[in-house]
Amino acid sequence: MWILDKDLWSEIFATLGKNLFRTFLTMLGVIIAMIILVLLLGGANGMSNGFQKIFAGTASNSLFIWSQSTSEPYKGFERGRRIQFKLEDATILKEQIEEIEVLAPRIELGSHRGIVTVYRNGLTSGSSVYGDYPNIDDIMKKKLVEGRFLNENDMEDFKKVCVIGEETYKLLFDKGENAIGEDVRINGVFFNIVGIYKPNQNINIDGENSVYIPFSTFQKAFGSGDRMGWMAISVKPDVKVPVVESQIKRLLKNKYDINPIDERAIGSFDLSEVFNNVTSFTTVLQGVSFFVGILTLLAGVIAISNILLITVKERTKEIGIRRALGATPRVVKRQIVLESIVITVFAGFVGFAIAVGFLAIANNMIGENSDMPFYNLIISIPQFIVSFVLMVGLSVLIGLIPANRAIRIKPIDALREE
């Protein structure tokens, strides 16, 4: 097989080794181009991973629904009527909209974002206090520092337990002091601390100065009855959140006699829209990075073609002798194309190794807990394979230019060259 021909490879390396400095300068363009390509792809992937990390622990296919005041008169009701959701609404929605996977009712002590004073041994913390179902953790995951989150037993037994944020702990306890099992007082009612959480450094809707208590206990302790403040909802996979959102609003508007065109009576926030926008942005960024990198690589490979054209000119007499001795145009063309491939592939591997080293250093500097929007800067295996296949393909195409120039040289003319 010709690819294993030792004489062929000896000739290739002998040719490239005649002028090592020029060969190095030829490879330098491809090395730099490959470094740029890998760094661009690694940076784009790192940003994508960073956004994935930001959304970690929060269901990306989720939305939040809350009640507001009407902005349109309807069925004898004037505008400005305050809508108050009931706990039964959660049951109705779950039963009638099969696309809903998790629905977690929630109520807050005081108005939205209201601050409640939490007491302990003369210390106070202005915190947000929520009555929650345990399944809220399936939508907005809490990273526990100590203890546990709310569970079904807490709900069924109306347990006066709570989970507090890390900031709440710092305001109510001395550093290093054990908080699990201790009591705090909220509006005159004592609650036993069973867990402490800290933000996941992601989309943190509640902040770190919040207190969670069982929804059933909230109802009993603070007399909220069947009122519900808002709902956190995640939909089933492959279901579009806006479709479910429209169904939910249509049902609730019908139940509470809200004008169908009233856009203010029911508030909502579609987290999936944010997630999809971010995903689209990172996908476009990866595509642009790959395109720019390939163009840079093409410029480096063109430089190889120019050098090989000079080499062909210098080797005119040698080529003429080989043709006179019976070398076919195919053999001559093959050698020059292989020279182009060897230079390109070797330079590409060198550039890739250098770029991966830079990415490793960057990953080490960024670390796990950095606030930078980058995480795990790395080039994927498919990207690596596609890059090298394109690089080899470009080297073959570019190598054909000097190769075709070489086979157009007539043996008799080449032998007359001085």
Topology:
Layout: H1 6-17, H2 20-55, E1 62-67, H3 87-96, E2 100-108, E3 116-120, E4 123-132, E5 143-147, H4 152-156, E6 161-165, H5 166-172, E7 183-186, E8 189-198, E9 210-214, H6 215-222, E10 230-235, H7 241-255, E11 266-270, H8 271-314, H9 316-324, H10 329-366, H11 381-407, H12 411-416
Parallel strand pairs: 4-9, 6-8
Antiparallel strand pairs: 1-10, 1-11, 2-4, 2-10, 3-4, 3-7, 5-8, 6-9, 7-8
Helix pairs in contact: 1-10, 2-8, 2-10, 8-10, 8-11, 10-11
Summarize the structure.
With 418 residues, the chain is of the alpha+beta class. It has helices at 6-17, 20-55, 87-96, 152-156, 166-172, 215-222, 241-255, 271-314, 316-324, 329-366, 381-407, 411-416; strands spanning 62-67, 100-108, 116-120, 123-132, 143-147, 161-165, 183-186, 189-198, 210-214, 230-235, 266-270. Helix 8 runs parallel beside helix 11 (381-407).
